[in-house]
Design a protein that fits this description.
Strands 1, 2, 3, 4, 5, 6, 7, 8, 9 and 10 form a 10-stranded mixed sheet that branches. This protein has 15 helices and 10 strands. Helices cover about 45% and strands about 15% of the residues. The chain has 2 domains: about 180 residues, D-Maltodextrin-Binding Protein, domain 2 (3-Layer(aba) Sandwich), CATH 3.40.190.10; about 150 residues, Periplasmic binding protein-like II (D-Maltodextrin-Binding Protein, domain 2), CATH 3.40.190.10. The N terminus is likely disordered. Helix 6 packs across helix 15 and helix 9 crosses helix 10. The N and C termini lie far apart (about 60 Å). By secondary structure, it is α/β, with parallel strands linked by helices. The structure holds fe (iii) ion.
Length: about 350
């Protein structure tokens, strides 16, 4: 008896679900770790061009957990993230699905997407070294490896080693050297820190401006956000106090990461989801999407913003596949604990 009642309930649910999906045929639902202002204008443009309504849920954290908790009943079609880490985690948890799209495969370089099509990079950024204009000479630091040199003792600032941005960078050190090398590097880098890891990326550049440290690790787009910050004009001074160092230009290139998208495992509007991601990878959207956050378009041949052209010009980015770094992030996290990086 009990089981048949359950079955009936399940059947009713399915019917109700089918009805609501049919009503909602021309929409697409996004769970986004990215802030609304970064994508809203593009979503409006997409709706105008296609007639597909876009519903956006944004959040700083917990969206992956929400997706997991909702399971089959989740309304989410697309997961939008500000880093490759959550995309990789979503893949591991089976929360996203493979997409075979020639459009996406041709628009997005291989190293910025999952080889199985479970996530796609849409904008790119580099994790660079911000160097004091006053206290660091041009060319004095050229590589991530050199951050471990004792000459920088007490002169480097960074946010927590456990932050997803740093985990990807450490994962790349493991990938390009090995675990033992990365551990030693991390230990030596820790010994060079001016203070216990704290604050966000911008807070490190502020610390350089204030003379707390001479070098800081930070994502490249924060430079643009600080330099043009009318609401907090003091940030312009932070940006003006540093030179941007894109590391490892003579070998593998500067560490790169992405913001990106994935189609969820149970997307009720799967076709619309793919259409939207393809729209975001097209040249017109690429230019706008990258420009609004001072990032780099992933699509080859898309022009950079004027600010990027002026301050970041041409640099060599590491082309190691981000899918290769995914599995190394857990090791990176363990190393951060092991050397007591954040203590
Ligand atoms: Fe960020």
């Amino acid at each position: 008896m009990k089981s048949s009642r359950t079955l009936l309930a399940a059947a009713t649910l399915t019917l109700a679900g089918t009805a609501s999906f049919a009503q909602a045929a021309n929409e697409v639902n996004i769970y986004s770790y990215r802030q609304a202002f970064l994508i809203q204008p593009l979503l409006e443009e997409f709706s105008k061009e296609t007639g597909i309504q876009v519903n956006l849920v944004t959040g700083d954290k917990g969206l992956l957990e929400r997706l997991e908790h909702e399971g089959r009943n989740s309304p989410a079609d697309i997961l939008l993230t500000a880093e490759v880490g959550p995309l990789y985690d979503a893949t591991q948890k089976g929360l996203v699905s493979a997409v075979q799209s020639d459009v996406l495969n041709e628009s997005i370089p291989q190293h910025y997407r999952d080889p199985e099509g479970r996530w796609f990079g849409l904008t790119a950024r580099s994790r660079i070294i911000y160097a004091s204009k006053d206290r660091v000479q041009d060319g004095e630091i050229k590589t991530y490896e050199e951050l471990a040199d004792p000459k920088w003792k007490g002169r480097i600032c960074t946010r927590s080693g456990k932050h997803t941005y740093n985990l990807s960078l450490i994962a790349s050190m493991i990938a390009h050297h090995d675990e033992a090398y990365a551990e030693q590097w991390l230990e030596d880098l820790k010994a060079n820190l001016a203070r216990k890891p704290q604050g966000n990326d911008r807070a490190q550049v502020k610390a350089v401006k204030e003379g707390v440290c001479d070098l800081a690790l930070g994502n490249s787009y924060y430079f643009g956000k600080m330099l043009t910050n009318e609401e907090q004009p003091e940030q312009k001074e932070w940006a003006q106090s540093v030179n941007l160092v894109f590391p490892n230009q003579d070998d593998r290139g500067a560490h790169m990461n992405i913001s990106g998208a994935a189609v969820t495992q149970h997307a009720p509007n799967r076709d619309n989801a793919i259409k939207l991601i393809e729209f975001l990878a097209a040249e017109k959207a690429q230019k706008i999407y990258a420009e609004v956050n001072s990032e780099f378009p992933v699509r080859p041949g898309t022009p950079n913003s004027a600010l990027i052209e002026e301050y970041m010009g041409n640099f060599k980015g590491d082309e190691i596949s981000l899918s290769e770094l995914g599995p190394l992030r857990a090791t990176a996290s363990r190393l951060v604990d092991k050397v007591g990086f954040d203590n």
